Amino acid sequence: MKFLFPLFSVLLLMACSSSQKTVKQPEPVVDPGPEWVRHRPIDTDYYIGIGRASKAISPSDYAQIAKRNALQDLVSEIEVKVESNSLLKQLETQTSFEERFLQSVRVQSVATVTDYELVGQWEDTRTYYIYYRLSKKRYLELKQQRIDRAVEQAQVHRQDAQQERSHDRLHQAFRSEVLALQVLKPFLNEPILITDPQSGREEYLGNVILQEMKELMRDMKITAASKKLEFTFGRVPSPNVIRVNVYSPQGNAQVNVPLIFECPLFYPDRNTMLSQSDGAAWAAFKRASRKGIGQLKVTVDMKSYFAKGDPLHQLVIKSVQVPSYSFDVTVHSPRVYLDMTEKSFGNVASMGQSWLRAAIQKALVSNGMQYEADHSKSHLIMVVVADTREAGEYQGLFTVKMEGEVTIHDLSNQEVLLKEPLNGIKGVDLDYKRAGDKAYEALKKKITYEIIPRLNRKLNGN
Question: How many CA atoms lie less than 13 Å away from 74 in the CB half-sphere?
Fold first, then answer.
């Protein structure tokens, strides 16, 4: 019996311990938030936008971020499509352009959408939520109001264009037509009908504006006195030679028309100028940088009518025939005349004798130039004055030094392109005559491998 009591006590303690382990603590209640946080609402009468933002990531402006996300979400529900009678559809634009245009409309809608209402806000310790909605009926009303205002502004610009055109100012009229198209840009995917006040016919406004732009560019004429132009490599083209005139069919000069002059044979290969009060415009290229035959094309700079990156530029240039004029251009190799004075110890070289002429002629050709025997037909003149003098003898070796200079002029303006003194050139041999010949050999190498290549680099602008 004395053994049963301790055993009973142990069993009782085990039972108590077991009962304590089975007691469960109550779990904390987690608020799941309103129904719209857990399941996106569906409402056929409203566009819905729900935004959220992390408090940890944006502790200071999570509410603004959630609002922005909600509006973007709301706008994404608004279908933006290209209607069949819209300007975009009529032009059958490329898919990539159409997608960029529609995306720009969506982005603009985020900034312009109004009259949305706050339905609810909710937050927990980690995330902030906000819920907006916009009446589809109200959205259509607001959209129509925006279209009406845009049409009114576009018609004002069209009237300005017609006024300019009545005074035969085609450039100014075209700029006003561009402004008319600009205000309609958010609605180019919409078929906007207007009534012509004279005929009473209904017309699509976007198509009317584009047709008027086509007519203005068609009437703008670019012409020049000559079709063929010839230049010399490395020389500055005279602006008066590359001259065009812009005028209307009535013969009136067109002022301030932006023009692009382009030619791959010139540097820079592109030049932009405005037509002057007499309708004339000149190109200001720095030099003819390549030899050969090509074209110099003059076109109206359509990009100047639009803001940088504006997709309307692509839309218009695809549909409007841009006025242009082309010159046939030939850039010749420069012809170089040689004026040589070669002396040996003060004595002029005998008739027909020359240490340098043949080598110079060969070097000119290998550097893209031509030797010209007729001074009147030359573009450049290379004057070489060289003489040798005795510089002493040492241990049976005789030294001769070269004196003189090489000068190269541009005959069109007498500009000195290069001037090189010959001091420092010398020859050493067993007698003065052979040392003099070596001095001329050293001069020949200097002209062939240094002076003429340097001239070529200068003509190339390097």
Answer: 32
